[in-house]
Amino acid sequence: MKDKLATFQSLCDELYPHELDYLLSINQFQKGENVQVLQLVYYNATNPDNPIPFDKSLDKRTYSYIKSWILDNLQKIDVDVFYDWVSGVERIILNDSIQSADEKQLLKMMEVIKPTDYYFMKFFRVIQHYRDYLLVRNRPRNYELVTDFLARSKSSYLYSQSLNNKMNEAAEKVIYRKIWVPEEFNVWEKLFSDIYYNETIDGYTRYRAVVRLTILYYTQREFDKLKLVYQHLDQQFKTPVFYSKRILANYYANRAMMHSKLNELEEAEKFGMLSIRHRNSDYLFYLVNVCDVLLRANKAPKALKLLVNSFPDLKTSGNFYYKIGFASLYIKTLVANNMTKNAVDYGEIFLNGYKDEIFEYRWHLFFSSYIGALFRFEKYSKILALGKRYKLCAQERQLLGTAQYLPLIQLYMLASEYMEGVTTKDKLRQAIMQHIQEVGQNRFRHRKVLDTLKTLSLCIPDVISGIMVTNQIHEEI
Prior knowledge:
- This protein has five domains: 2-77, no CATH class; 99-243, no CATH class; 253-317; 323-377, no CATH class; 386-477.
- The chain is mainly alpha-helical.
- The protein has helices at residues 2-13, 17-26, 32-46, 60-77, 79-94, 100-110, 120-135, 140-176, 182-196, 203-219, 223-236, 245-261, 265-275, 283-296, 300-309, 311-316, 320-336, 340-361, 363-376, 380-390, 392-397, 408-419, 425-438, 443-457, 461-470.
């Protein structure tokens, strides 16, 4: 019984709340004990810090049955499972190795696939390949069935295809352009919103739209608008429309980031921990986000433990965007755990090993963390040398006027100049106040500046306290 419960517990540990919302909505169990077990699985999934143990006195066949029932019902609606299957069928059609059983299953799926299904477009293209396969083999019966399906589905396919083409063009502008006019933002917002909320088109196109809407709102720091979108998406995930573990993990990670930007740390931690419950190719990215939330929630030891345990994932990752994000957050976490020398040493080693990659991908994030650690370690001359060698202040000033502008490096440089006797207190005060005014009224940017000012106040408390009172900067920003 111990082994059986361990296997069942292992499955439950990886289940997401939305998966269980769906399972509870479809169960038709006749036995009360089956319902009770499923409800307990749900409770533990939503209360991971206070789980209730399963009843060992129950017949082990009950747990075995519920485990099989959970796996079977989730597999039926898993869009990634469907994609793997339809891709396999495409491969055997294209290499002329499709068998009779495969054809029967494909024809059966043709009867149930709808234009609203997640991978409808992929399925449509595979049926086009199958039609060509049938045509050259002179098989009129199946050919007529396939042709009828394509004719009925063509308009839906072409419409979804046109929407994806529009999104591709818009997304390129959203991601790579630095300065927008308000009219452009409104056009893209309407395009992505209209597509996402249109429940008559395929799920893949709709989810692509919500991902791009997320990027758009993040770029412009419109987190309150994004929250409304996610409230709607949350209900969608309780249905089969977008279901897969991969997509759910992505959703939880995005919600964690959103709540973090809104300074809703308890919600951010909850969704962040859900995002790393199941490892995938984006695990490091999700991990960094949740650990950043833990630091802000004064849970530095927990963040450090998660990061240290994930070093094997870091070593095997080839994604430098993720690696630099990990390194930057690890430096901050070491400082938060009073291991500042370790943070400085790690930052220097990482910079020497990945200088080119740092400047190619995430130079501002890395140097903000590394210089912050150097400042805490009172290495002011080292900070000034780095700034001069890599022209960091000039690079940071190039972002002025964009939503990405944060004068964190300039603030550290100014304070370091003062500590080294290069500038006066009055000039330092005036320069810092100018930078505060430059960031505008955005809550997220003000919070980042506030964090930096807290670090600076360790060495120049009289200057910083006066500035914070003058500018009415406080913890609630």
